[in-house]
Here is the input.
Amino acid sequence: MESESGGKALEGEMEVEAFKRLFPLPFYEKHLSQSLRPDSRSLDESRPTILVLGTVQTADGSATAKIGHT
Here is the structure.
């Protein structure tokens, strides 16, 4: 069983997601007015990036890039 605070956190996340989907323009305007992205990064902060070279041994040149959670 979830704690009361855990349930409220989930409820809050659901409300934010609903607002984002129903009113995307005000959602993004609110964040941009505070110079923040919706994931709390500043506007000039990039996602964590990992680049691995030579991931395919049979190719003359290959690389794998991971940017954020992609």
